[in-house]
Predict the structure.
Amino acid sequence: MKNYCKTCPFKPNKKGQWQDVKLANDVIARTLLQAHQICHGTEGEDRKPTHRCKGAFEHNLEIYKRMGLDDLVE
């Protein structure tokens, strides 16, 4: 995703904080070093995954960079 979808828990609010901190942390715990989060806001009616979640991807990529693993991410 190039932008956050309207329901993204990682989308910053007016204070610059995540919209849904609990859900964002749940996604991080579930996906870090395991899988990518699919953006549910962009799925079609057939529920076919088409885009990675921008917020989860960018957060996890920062962790990968700090670990020196960012060259493994496409």
Observations:
- The CA atoms of residues 15 and 67 lie 29 Å apart.
- Helices lie at 21-31, 54-67.
- The mean pLDDT is 85.
